[in-house]
């Protein structure tokens, strides 16, 4: 997805893991995905560099769709669509 599409997306829930070091953002994403329904989108805020590889790898491993990342002011916004 393009950055414009991601920025205009309505997430069902947002997890703010800014200030949390690895594996904090990933653990917060795991908790957060359980709060959205199948087909809905979870948005994760993180300023930990490891999240750029951890979140997509985890989503693929457990069967969710990683939609992409958008850079914001000092942090990243990651988007995952719950698939199961």
UniProtKB/TrEMBL annotation:
InterPro entries noted in UniProt: TusA-like (IPR001455), TusA-like_sf (IPR036868)
Q: Where is the UPF0033 domain?
A: 15-39
Q: Which domain of life is it from?
A: Bacteria
Matching entries from SUPFAM superfamilies are given as: SirA-like
Report residue spans for region: Disordered.
1-21
Which Gene3D superfamilies does the UniProt record give? TusA-like domain
Family recorded in the similarity comment? Belongs to the sulfur carrier protein TusA family.
Q: What is this protein called?
A: Preprotein translocase subunit TatB
Organism from which the protein derives: Desulfosarcina widdelii
């Amino acid at each position: 997805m393009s950055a414009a599409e991601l920025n205009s997306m309505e997430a069902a829930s947002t997890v703010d893991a800014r200030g949390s070091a690895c594996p904090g953002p990933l653990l917060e994403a795991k908790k957060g995905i359980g709060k959205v329904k199948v087909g809905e989108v979870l948005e994760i805020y993180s300023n930990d560099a490891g999240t750029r590889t951890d979140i997509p790898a985890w989503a693929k491993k457990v069967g969710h769709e990683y939609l992409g990342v958008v850079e914001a002011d000092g942090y990243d916004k990651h988007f995952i669509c719950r698939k199961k």
